[in-house]
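Q: I'm writing up a methods section and want to include an example of the input and output format. Could you take the sequence below and give the corresponding predicted structure tokens, formatted cleanly so I can copy it straight into the document?
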Amino acid sequence: MTITGTGDIATQIYRQILDAVVDGRLRPGERLPPSRELARRLAVSRNTVAAAYERLTADGYLVGRVGAGTYVCLEALDRRPRSAPAGRDVRPRAFWRDLALSKAATGPAQYDFTVGVPDTRLFPLDTWRRLVSRELRHATIGTGDYGDPAGLTGLRTAIARYIGVSRGVRAAADDVLVTHGAQQALDLIARVMVEPGGRVAVEEPGYPPARLLFRSLGARVVGVPVDDEGIDVAALPADARVVYVTPSHQYPLGVPMSVARRAALLAWAERHNAVVVEDDYDSEYRFEDRPLPPLQSLDRHGRVLYVGTFAKTMLPMLRTGFLVAPASLLPALRAAKELSDWHNELSTQAALAAFLAEGHLARHVRKTTLVYAERRARLATALRRHLAPWLVPVRSVAGLHVCARVAPGVHLDTGEVARRAAAAGVVVDTLTRFRGDAPAQHGLVIGYGAIPADRIDDGIRRLTPMIKASL
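A: Here is the clean output for your methods example:
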């Protein structure tokens, strides 16, 4: 409560208390401060406060109880929702005006083929709870200082070891920056590397949040076609300062970038003084062929920034990822992290360090790989059995989803298929959603991380009449 110092002070107090009662900030039965105490806080006379209380009591909003104080009346009141001023003349930048936000979850679907969602039921939650509880028991407030923006040393050490063994990344603890997921890593890179109006190249089709994030920071984003070997290096714009790729399992097509294409991309980056952002979003889950070396391990000139996340292997709700960067960029990235949100929550970092160091994540990945491999096989069989006349799966060797293109000569409205499917409790995505400014490719993108194996065949079978109705 504030007093302006002009006008009828008792009326000001009356109106502010009335607003608080009507919009619910002061609830029925809640006690108000004694008039003497409120007068002291506001530096006004007690009689002024008493006059406001008496008026509110007479109007039926307050009630006095002898020897107990003044309370908000228990009787129900017509309440108006409290809201900030509309600000009709205040507008965001043009980019933000029509941007569609992620839709809130509406509950589990009967057949959930959502892309990029792991099965959280498989996560060893009891182990995680034990590690978090242990860190909270041992935590000390200390001096009250903030933590290192780069992350706890123990966690950065554990991440460097883990990705060195599981992914072949060449990194020490000092090369790692802990982030709130891969998306924040991309945000930090863009802040440090992209001038307003600078050119950023992304895959086409590709990961929409990356494209939108770069655009939101003022970059000119250009989509570069992807073929069966990955991004077409020959089509990269010469003035691109940043190239964003998903070489292990292209998002959303699923094709891995060939060794020759990887070498060509690194050579292009060196010639054009650019950096390559390697988003290795779910490469732990590999089901065929030997893993190809990450771009980061082939880089000899400090051109690759390697981005990873624990959202697919652990829990999306943890919002923890990491960034491995050349030494020349780390001070700036660390400063950007400090200016952005300073650092990740410390007890979660410590628990994650233990989860990695004690081998829990490696065991979890081994276990879930077997589960996802069965689901992947069942999905491949179901697609052949039910949808072969209309959709052709793109061969992929890793990840938690499959892309199926519309077969040559078939004219299919995949958007209509997805809408009809959603109404029937079957959630699938369309390849069209992953395009930028290029003409859309048509197909479905089908995740198998969240759906039990025994529901896959029935879920895919239910798409058949929806496809027939959309031809």
